[in-house]
Amino acid sequence: MFGNFFKPKNLDTSRVPPGQVLTEKFPVLTYGPTPTVRPEEVRFEIKGQVEEAKTFSWQDLMALPQSDLTADFHCVTRWSKLDVQWSGIRVPDLMQQVKLKPQARAVLVHCYGGYTTNLTLEDFLLEQNILAHKLFGQPIPRDHGGPMRLIVPHLYAWKSAKWVRGLEFLDQEELGFWEVNGYHRRGDPWKEERFSD
Ligand SMILES: Nc1nc2c(c(=O)[nH]1)N[C@H]1C(S)=C(S)[C@@H](COP(=O)(O)O)O[C@H]1N2
Ligand SMILES: [Mo]
């Protein structure tokens, strides 16, 4: 298994966080069964600390500005993959459609299948975060989170929720699935925020 992992040679090692090894493959990491979600049935829901709850159909989402992102992907189980190419809707472009209440501080990301993960508003609203529906120019394969997943490149990949079904804005942070089960509430790979204390 470790044959697929390599130590970077000429590579700029400043891109590999501490304790991580590179893989050129793209492993699948899913807790539990893989849900089947057809784009036509997506109802992306925004609720909680917002002035008005909203639901986006697939068509609504595709009508929003579309962007590309190339980002490194760091799984807390110690593999990293460089230069993964995503396309989709940047979080700030989505958030143009949403008016948050002033007390909003955090978001709980909900997924088809029941997975959740938490982010502070500050970590969520970053320019590079994207609701991706393409991976290397193709619709995201189901096991990698298709039809749509969140990508939060500056944190460990458990924050990059697959099969996203909605966002719940909160006045204080509530922990998601892995965060309840011992992972760090934030998960910065450069600080090795793997587990909670
Ligand atoms: N809905 C959902 N999203 C998820 C997960 C999951 O189990 N369910 N696993 C997370 C973890 S731990 C990682 S490392 C990445 C893996 O993404 P990949 O399977 O596309 O490599 O997805 C994250 N998003
Ligand atoms: Mo992971």
From TrEMBL:
Q: Which GO terms describe its molecular function?
A: oxidoreductase activity
The residues that cross the membrane are none
**EC number in record:** 1.8.-.-
Domain Oxidoreductase molybdopterin-binding, chain residue ranges per copy? 32-178
CDD domains recorded for this chain? arch_bact_SO_family_Moco
Q: Is Oxidoreductase among this UniProt entry's keywords?
A: yes
* Gene3D superfamilies for the chain: Oxidoreductase, molybdopterin-binding domain (3.90.420.10)
The enzyme's first-digit EC class, named in words, is: oxidoreductase
**Pfam families under this entry?**
Oxidored_molyb
Keywords annotated in UniProt: Oxidoreductase
| Protein's name in the database | Sulfoxide reductase catalytic subunit YedY
